[in-house]
Amino acid sequence: MDRVIVKVRGEQTGADGETNAVEVVAEGRHYFKNGMHYVLYDDHMADESISTMLKIEPDRLHLTRSGAVTQEQHFANGMESTSEYVTPLGSLTLSVRTRNMEISYGTVSGEIRVDYAMAINGTWQSDNTLSIEISPDASEVGRLN
User: Fold this and answer.
1) Given phi > 0 = left and psi -120 to 50 = alpha, else beta, which region is 107?
2) Residues 5, 30: Cα–Cα separation, whole Å
3) CB-based burial, 23-48: b 16+ in 10 Å, e otherwise
4) Is 140 helix (H, G, I), strand (E, B) or coil?
5) The domain that contains 23 carries what CATH number?
6) Running DSSP on this structure, what letter comes out for residue 137?
7) Are 97 and 76 in contact (CB under 8 A)?
8) H or E element in which residue 141 lies
9) Which domain holds residue 68?
10) pLDDT by residue (tens digit) across 41-95?
């Protein structure tokens, strides 16, 4: 497995037109298997750890989270995906409709951008963008070049 740095930026614009942004930078691990890139990292939310796995195909992104939050979401151009978003406070049905997705991935590093609409329990909630940048950890650069 290669050590990587994962930078995630999410923006959400609700009905009131207000945009909220969240950024996460985490150390992670990358490996390539059966034509897919896998990126594993831990996200920390309010003193809770959430293990996140990205499974990256040339035209699809699968996001799986477990720990304080459990979620599985799939993104592909024009596709709608529905899943349960489970938290310690309860569950929600979360649906996303991918409007546009671009994936540019090399051997270990890459960029992903997803524009999507999100509904909670069947009601439109927000328009969103998700930007993910994966780069080799500084300790790996010499070994990978």
Assistant:
1) alpha
2) 10
3) ebebebebeeeeeebbbbbebeeeee
4) coil
5) 2.40.128.20
6) -
7) no
8) helix 141-144
9) 2-144
10) 998 776 778 999 999 999 999 999 999 889 999 999 999 999 999 988 999 999 9
Q: In the predicted model, is pLDDT for residue 139 greater than 80?
A: no
Separation of alpha carbons 52 and 42, rounded Å:
6
Total domain count for the chain?
1
Q: Are 31 and 41 in contact (CB under 8 A)?
A: no
What's the pLDDT at 43?
85
Task: Please spell the DSSP secondary structure of 10-72, one letter per residue.
Answer: EEEEETT--EEEEEEEEEEEEEEETTEEEEEEEEEETTEEEEEEEEE-SS-EEEEEEESSBEE
Instruction: Tell me how crowded residue 143 is: count the other CB atoms within 10 A of its CB.
Output: 9
Q: State pTM to two decimals.
A: 0.89
- Residue 145 has a pLDDT of 44
Q: How is residue 144 annotated by DSSP?
A: H
Q: How confident is the model at residue 72, as a pLDDT? A: 95
